[in-house]
Amino acid sequence: MKIICTKNELLQASSIVIGAVSQKSTLPLLSNLLFEAKDNSLIIAATDLEVSVKTVIKAQVLKEGGITLPGKLLVDIFKKMPQDEIEITSDEQCKVIVKSGRTKYSIIGISKDEFPVAIGFDTDKKLKMNGDILKEMILKTKFAISLDETRYVLNGIDFVIDKGTASMVATDGKRLTLISRKEAFDKKLSLNLIIPAKAVEELLKILLTMPGEEVEVGILENQIGFKMKDTILRSRLIDGHFPNYEQVIPKETKGSFRVKTKDLLFATERVSLVASGRAVPVKYSLSESKLELYAMEQGKGEGNDEIEAVYKGEPFEAAYNPSYIIDMLKVVNSEEVVFEFSSSINPGVIKPADDASYIYIIMPMRLE
Predict the structure, then answer these.
(1) Which of 91, 150, 231, 323 is the most exposed place for a label (fewest CB within 10 A)?
(2) How many domains, in total, are found in the chain?
(3) Burial (0-12, 13-18, 19+ Cβ within 10 Å), 170
(4) Does any domain span residue 214?
(5) Which of 114, 139, 169 is at the close of a domain?
């Protein structure tokens, strides 16, 4: 193989796929990127056997062929190359020369024949989505994915399409976030899949580099694929049944208040500076037209703040994990949010004031 590419395209393409390499495997091949040159194009791919990503860039192909090379090392080399043009040459002994100007590296690769998967997109079950909508849905749910590996089915996002509406749900048992968007899907189409957290993160990275692009979604046996321009991501699905989240959505509330999103976000961030311990809550005390926030960590200090809120009713107080409040408010686009409650021990509901299709349910913490 012998190719010439621009530094910018090589770096951008490698950065798209590098997240799919394995961080834990002892197999060197799963830490490598596949480089395969043919037809004036360069395919760059990576996999950890769970998530696979492939992208294609233009290249001056002087000799067709392929090789796999250490992913992190290659990205670091591309970043430091002094000139815009980079030449990559490999021989039959898997020795690779990477050159740019007077800078040259000699690297030992592994045969492309040992690369474990073919990253295709052949399926009859496909649908199309607006990439910006898909990106928004991921941003507004992924922070609630459970990190507890013993609760395997919660280690991803539940992706549902039913009667022309797409929904995403994530929960870690202490909070739940749900977003629905009406799309021009075939109303006869129905699916319910759990997409693993790593695939969600890698898909989001790709979507952020391609604003406004249409995304083709393909359903394969126990896998899901996403195709955007010349980039394909494939992932295994989580096997199991997501909990019936509709059961935990409060059917009625006793009160609610409306507050400016940024006011609540910034006040929570300020007060939580003295609540760095994992079990330290922020107390929210509500009275007419006023919301007071208070946090105290033993041996560290305490913080108070006060913001305006639209509320008429009896005084109410409850305590919540401040990071859970902050996570949600950071991704809300609306100027105001509505916080609904029933008691200090029952779940609260936060939602944008102008978007009923996005809701966030959060369990309170007990006050000492």
Answers:
(1) 150
(2) 3
(3) buried
(4) yes
(5) 114
